[in-house]
Amino acid sequence: MKWRSLPAGTVAIATGVIFFLSAIGAPGAPAAMASVVEHTFVVRQVKMTHLCKETLATVVNGQFPGPAIEVTEGDSVTVHVVNQSPYNLTIHWHGVKQRLNCWADGVPMITQCPILPNQNFTYRFNVAGQEGTLWWHAHVSFLRASVHGALIIRPRRGASSYPFPKPYKEVPIIIGEWWDMDLLKADWGIQQHVIDPYFNASTINGKLGDLYSCSGAVEDGYLLDVEPGRTYLLRIINAALFAEYYLKIAGHKFTVVAADANYVSPYTTDVIAIAPGETMDALLVADADPGRYYMVALPNQSPLPDPQGPTLITRGIVQYSNKQRAADGGGRPSSDIAVSPEMPDQHDMITSFYFHGNLTGLHHPQHLEVPKHVDERLFITLGLGSICRGGQSSCKRSENNESVDVATMNNFSYQQPAVATPLLELHYYNTDNCVLSMLQELPDKPPRVFNYTDPALILPGPKEAKLEPTSKATIARRFRQGAVVEVVFQGTAILSSESNPMHLHGHDMFVLAQGEGNYDATRDVPRYNLVNPAVKNTVFVPRLGWVAVRFIADNPGIWYMHCHFEFHVSMGMVALFIVEDGSTVDTFLPAPPADFPTCGHDHNVMSNEFYPI
Ligand code: C2O
User: Fold this and answer.
1) Are 108 and 61 in contact (CB under 8 A)?
2) What is the Å distance from ligand 1's center to 430 Cα?
3) Atom nearest to 135 CA in ligand 1
4) How far, in Å, CA of 147 to CA of 137, rounded?
5) What does the pLDDT read at residue 9?
6) Nearest atom in ligand 1 to 95's CA
7) What are residue 469's DSSP bridge partners?
8) DSSP string for residues in 581-593
9) Distance between CA atoms of 379 and 445, rounded to whole angstroms?
């Protein structure tokens, strides 16, 4: 494609253009070719009307959700991003390991300069050694609410090589949010603690559904037509910013077969719990009586005294193709009324705890063994805290106006470094002393031991007040190439008791164990699943509980590690994991791609600072 020679102002939208590279595969295997799959993503604002209100939504190629990228394991992906929006942005390929390719990870001022309005950037990466459902999203501020889409990787040997019965059809189910507020303003409001932004509706594949209406006219809902007896593979993605969701379909069960593009032992359940950043592949067998069944997605939230948001449920419909026939001749009740599932309570956190705890990895040819030996151990508390406005060291806290609430790891709230060059470039060109001077080491453990999950800490009070003061810094942790790292994420109750879906870029994590309350190594290490743990890029830290993970730091580069609740990112629940180079070609970070842009003067714009204090 003659990308670069296009006259200014014209944009060719190549959707899924495929070039064949070469045949790969074992002799005798069906000839599968690795290809280059090429897309053009034009990001711009389009008018969309929901709930009686016209909104300028920032989307890719005019679509919400954006286009799905569908590839085969081993393919290369090229995406030309054309930024016609008024915002700086980058795109992150969530869950793609980007082995030796941190340059394409899409984190502004860490791996690249943000793509400024009216500029372009081309991402090139491969999806070797991964199969399943991943996704892509903007990695700037709240923009990912509308700038996201599925990234589906199919096995090179075809659908018959799935470690489960071959589905009749595959269906992406993207749970998201509809916002009529300016997304940058929402982000700013949370950082400054001046407004409490909230979305207006939940969505399934961009549709709000019939629980929402505008002067009597109900919103469109997502409709899935099924044929009786067939099996469907639902590729479920939670692209929402604010909540974990419960997903149910009346009269049906799911068999979960993969999570975060890693196969799991088949797990049959009538409810799926999916937190922001997670993906779940689940088989749905159309084995109910012909009819119409609601598919309901309900956002859960921690109970009072945590702050409460409105309950914005969304629903679509699963409809059997033989419904009419059966109703006419089969003597079944003929009705258009769809059956509703019974949903968990919005404050039910236990269903999610068990759902996540029931996922185990599947032994199959590509699965990795859990390393038994650990080189580095981190115990990381997650929670809220506060810093004084205007850099003061003391001030009135506990939700007083003199302080701002922030989100922390081991009492540090992440601060974007004030650099004009992305950190990865500084690191690569051996200006590490310069990088190091900007960073604060993320400590191995919190500054003090306390009863982390004491519910008395949720509301401001004397106990809580002692724990609240925190500081801001660019927190980072360096790992030697190949180090086996064990992290225990401990949720805390300080000012809020939310769960935290923790996402690590560039690596998958083995989920060894989870528990309620405080982690206790003597009691909990013997419970580690070292045999078949689930492998995830986003690990769910339960409300007032903990989770223990292990990963191998073998992908050189600088990787974001953060909570996938967007308000927690804005508030600073982020750290950088720096994986050092090794000494062999497959363990050190190659030079940036030849056409990698350097930041212009206007590039020391860290983020979209449209809303100064
Ligand atoms: Cu899906 Cu750093 O994010």
Assistant:
1) no
2) 27
3) 1
4) 6
5) 35
6) 1
7) 386
8) P-SSGGGSPPPPP
9) 5
Domains of the chain (ranges; CATH) run 1-160 (2.60.40.420), 162-364 (2.60.40.420), 376-580 (2.60.40.420)
Q: What is the largest CA-CA distance in the chain?
A: 79
pLDDT (tens digit per residue) in 398-417: 778 899 999 999 999 999 99
Cα–Cα dist 362/266, whole Å: 8
From CA 180, how far away is CA 51, in angstroms rounded?
A: 9
Is the pLDDT at 7 greater than 90? The verdict is no
pLDDT at 18: 59
Q: Distance of alpha carbon 139 from its chain centroid, rounded?
A: 10
Q: How many residues does this entry show for the chain?
A: 613
Give the position, in ligand 1's atom list, of the atom nearest the Cα of 569: 2
Measured in angstroms, how far is the CA atom of residue 148 from the centroid of ligand 1?
11
pLDDT higher than 50, residue 260: yes
The position carrying tokens 């600088």 is 558
Ligand 1 center to 263 CA (angstroms): 21
Backbone φ, ψ for residue 328 (5° rounding) = -75, -50
d(CA 51, CA 46): 16
Q: What would the pLDDT profile of 26-36 be if each residue is shown by its tens digit?
A: 444 454 678 99
Tokens 């809902």: give the residue: 221
The reply to whether omega before 462 is within 30° of 0 (cis) is: no
Residue 395 phi, psi (nearest 5): -170, 170
Residue 538 Cα: closest atom of ligand 1: 1
**CA of 577 relative to ligand 1 center, distance in Å:** 14
Closest residue by CA, ligand 1 atom 3? 94
Q: How far apart are CA 28 and CA 521, in angstroms?
A: 50
Indicate which atom in ligand 1 lies nearest the CA of residue 560: 2
Contact of 202 with 314, CB cutoff 8 Å: yes
Element (H, E) at 500: strand 500-504
Q: Is 356 helix (H, G, I), strand (E, B) or coil?
A: helix
The model carries a pTM of 0.93
For ligand 1, residues with CB inside 6 Å are: 92, 94, 137, 139, 277, 503, 505, 560, 562, 564
Would you state the structure tokens that stand for residue 378, as one six-digit string? 């981190």
Q: Please tell me the number of Cα atoms within 13 Å of 218 on its side-chain side.
A: 9
Atom from ligand 1 closest to the CA of residue 505:
2
CA of 469 to the centre of ligand 1 (A): 27
Cα(482) to centroid of ligand 1, in Å? Answer: 23
CA of 378 from ligand 1 middle (Å) equals: 21
Atom of ligand 1 nearest to the CA of 107: 2
Whose Cα sits closest to atom 1 in ligand 1? 94
CA distances from 19 to 16, 36, 130, 517 (A): 10, 5, 20, 52
Residues in a beta bridge with 70: 152
Distance 313 CA to ligand 1 centre (A): 24
Contact 257, 340 (CB under 8 A): no
